[in-house]
Design goal:
GO terms for molecular function: penicillin binding; peptidoglycan glycosyltransferase activity; serine-type D-Ala-D-Ala carboxypeptidase activity. This is Membrane carboxypeptidase (Penicillin-binding protein). Keywords: Carboxypeptidase, Glycosyltransferase, Hydrolase, Multifunctional enzyme, Protease, Transferase. The chain starts with a helix and ends in a 9-residue tail after the last helix. It folds into 2 domains: 268 residues, Biosynthetic peptidoglycan transglycosylase-like (Penicillin binding protein transpeptidase fold), CATH 1.10.3810.10; 313 residues, 3-Layer(aba) Sandwich (Beta-lactamase). The longest helix has 17 residues. By secondary structure, the chain is an alpha+beta fold. It has a 5-stranded antiparallel beta sheet, with helices on both faces. It is elongated, with a radius of gyration of 34 Å.
């Protein structure tokens, strides 16, 4: 029978099928059929985008940096498309036997099926719609296309004559455009199999913890049987007996069509269900139970994604893109480094301590964040005490945001004064006879550091800090009065600007106001009175480690769309923000606090002198203590890694952590760096030129 005759016959028989759509009549009058006209029942000349380039919702997977370790998934429908060639032949045969035994004989609309439904609808008053597998695919594709409006998607499943006609015409057109196997593959990827599993890949995993290619005859028959009534027949949450009945039905149909030998079908019927359910995690609270610490990194990843215009104009659009787009996201999280970071954090403070030690590890030159650790449980479970972040929290204690403004990092901010001074043309050997107390020109409203209304910081240990100092040993010994003087000389606003340039974010409204309107008089900024986070701080120091190349902190190594194409949004975002010589000189000074030595032998004492000898590789960094030791901070970096940890009480800033914790922080940072770099080559910092070390010059903006 040629296609033209088939189309005409289909038109006549269609009337009886439509009668089963609960339209209140046993059959449509013949006059209605001819009133509709042959033209309205012919194949369409064109297909909608939903059928030409289908985009069913697929889950996105977030992996660790090895590209294999799954952190979690994001989805509204648990689906991952697979090529039909990767589906076991027995599964393909089973779905055809269950849903459309004449799939390979008809052209999208089964004339025999239409005739059968016509007879049943007239005689028994039933509602047989005679939908072929192709027609079912059309309905599902139109109903699930995220590019369509809710109203357009609803039209795909409405019980109307128009919808049925439209479905049939699209089916006829589709079969002229693509092969049967491609249609079958699309159907298998879009069908709902119950228990939250969309598509054959998700269903294979959900029910049997296997892949479509490895499905057995019994497994295939069970899955194929679920498609008719996936909610009620689902053997995990629904009726297992009904599921077994449907399995038997599919096996019988496969025997009838010669796809399976009767003996093989009998053996398959005799098998137990043998379910091996496995649920696909969804969102950050579903990270593996043994890796709860990954939740904080995952949470920061979602913050990052929500800020990317490449994935939509609004946060809602970006979230829809994430949960429907089928992305394969390889993150920057190094699972091994993360485990070690968490181990070391717990040696600073255990989970049972209300004080926290949020810690970040950043890769210089890329901005990739390798680890984010804190002694908290990532959970939305309520806390017994009044605190919001102990012991359970989903707040971003490491990266900030979402109400977390950060913590004072003390003298670690002196780095920004060093950089501003070097950029202004001052050399590393800039000398100043540092007194115990230095009265500055910066106005201040009372407090212990006020002398007649002016800011006047003092040295914490005058016997060790006072006297002639250069940038090298002043940074090493953390001499407050030297840096108050240096800030006056170069300008507090230039120190603030330098911090912003290196990525310090002012999340506190008061800090943001001072940075915007009062930076010229914000002398105390140099001593770290502004709130920051371990991530901001680690990345700022990573900029110096990378010889002035600042990179936006990123949780991404690569992002690939469902077609395998890499997305540019996953690439590092880096730019040169410091003259190379300025960065090298700052690194040279930063070797002093941690017990290393510069090429010019400028170091003479440090606040964490035990760090470098224990690591046995070139190292730089800084410690910091806020007023009354309310917080304690340690930052350390090599050319390959930058680590920052801050000890604080996120729920009670008045709870001073005390200076003693800094010893544990120094030890933890040293052990973390030693372990993370154990297989990495020993790289040295490039020393600065003699000019930047010893000569005053014009401003060094260079490259």
């Amino acid at each position: 029978m040629n296609r033209a005759h088939l189309n005409k016959l289909f038109t006549v028989l269609l009337a009886g099928v439509l009668a089963g759509l609960a339209l209140g009549a046993a059959a449509l009058p013949v006059a209605l059929v001819f009133g509709l006209g042959f033209k309205n029942l012919m194949p369409y000349a064109a297909l909608p985008e939903s059928l030409k380039t289908p985009q069913p919702a697929q889950r996105s997977n977030l992996y660790a940096s090895d590209g294999r370790t799954l952190i979690t998934s994001f989805y509204v429908e648990d689906r991952v498309d697979v090529p039909v060639e990767e589906v076991a032949p027995v599964m393909r045969q089973a779905i055809v036997a269950a849903e459309d035994v004449r799939f390979y004989q008809h052209h999208g609309v089964d004339v025999r099926g239409v005739a059968r439904a016509f007879t049943a609808n007239r005689r028994e008053g039933t509602r047989q719609g005679a939908s072929t597998l192709t027609m079912q695919y059309v309905r599902n594709a139109l109903a699930g296309d995220p590019r369509l409006t809710e109203e357009q998607r609803a039209r795909a499943t409405e019980i109307t004559v128009g919808r049925k006609i439209r479905e049939m015409r699209y089916a006829l057109t589709l079969e002229r455009r693509i092969s049967k196997d491609e249609i079958l593959g699309r159907y298998l990827n879009i069908a709902y199999f119950g228990a939250g599993a969309y598509g054959i890949a998700a269903a294979s995993k959900r029910y049997f913890s296997t892949t479509p290619a490895k499905l057995t005859l019994a497994q295939s028959a069970l899955l194929a049987g679920l498609v008719r009534s996936p909610d009620t027949d689902d053997p995990i949450n629904g009726d297992a007996d009904s599921a077994l009945g449907r399995r038997a039905y599919v096996l019988d149909r496969m025997v009838e069509t010669g796809q399976v030998a009767e003996a093989d079908a009998a053996r398959a019927k005799g098998e137990l269900l043998n379910l091996k359910p496995s649920a696909t995690p969804n969102d950050c609270t579903a990270v593996p139970a043994g890796h709860n610490d990954w939740g904080f990194f995952c949470d920061w990843f979602t913050q990052w994604w929500n800020a990317q215009p490449a994935f939509g104009k609004t946060v809602d659009e970006r979230q829809r893109t994430l949960r429907r787009g089928g992305w394969s996201i390889v993150s920057s999280l190094d699972a091994d480094v993360q485990a070690k970071a968490t181990e070391q954090v717990l040696r600073i403070y255990p989970n049972s301590n209300e004080r926290a030690a949020p810690t970040a590890v950043v890769q210089p030159g890329t901005g990739r964040v390798l680890a984010m650790a804190v002694n908290r449980t990532y959970s939305v479970a309520p806390n017994a005490a009044a605190g919001q972040n102990y012991p359970n929290t989903v707040n971003q204690l490491v990266a900030g945001g979402g109400g977390i403004e950060g913590y004072q990092a003390g003298s670690t901010f002196k780095l920004f004064a060093v950089l501003a001074a070097l950029e202004a043309g001052l050399p590393l050997n800039t000398e100043f006879d540092s007194p115990s107390v230095f009265v500055t020109k910066y106005p201040i409203d009372g407090g212990p550091a006020s002398c007649g209304g002016h800011w006047c910081p003092e040295n914490a240990n005058p016997a060790w800090m006072d006297g002639d100092r250069t940038m090298w040993d002043a940074f090493g010994r953390s001499v407050n009065t030297y840096f108050a003087w240096l800030t006056e000389r170069v300008g507090a606003d230039r120190v603030v600007e330098m911090a912003e340039r290196l990525g310090i974010v002012f999340r506190s409204p008061e800090d943001a106001r001072l940075a915007r309107d009062g930076a010229k008089n914000w002398g105390p900024f140099t001593l770290g009175v502004s709130s920051t986070t371990p991530l901001d701080l680690a990345n700022a120091y990573a900029t110096v480690a990378a010889e002035g190349t600042w990179c936006r902190p990123t949780p991404i190594s690569s992002i690939t769309d469902p077609t395998g194409r890499k997305v540019a949004a996953g690439n590092p975002d880096c730019r040169q923000v410091l003259d190379t010589e300025v960065a090298r000189a700052a690194t040279d000074a930063a070797r002093c606090p941690v017990g290393d030595q510069t090429m010019y032998r400028g170091c003479d004492g440090g606040t964490a002198e035990q760090l470098a000898p224990g690591l046995r590789r070139p190292l730089a960094g800084k410690t910091g203590s806020s007023e009354r030791n309310a917080t304690e901070t340690v930052v350390a970096f090599t050319p390959q890694l930058s680590v920052a940890t801050i000890a604080a009480n996120p729920d009670n800033p008045r709870d001073a952590v005390g200076g003693g914790v800094q010893v544990r922080q120094i030890e933890a940072v040293g052990r973390l760096l030693a372990w993370a770099l154990r297989d990495e080559p020993v790289l040295d910092f490039v020393p600065p030129s003699q000019t930047v070390a010893f000569q005053r010059t014009s401003p060094r903006t260079g490259n």
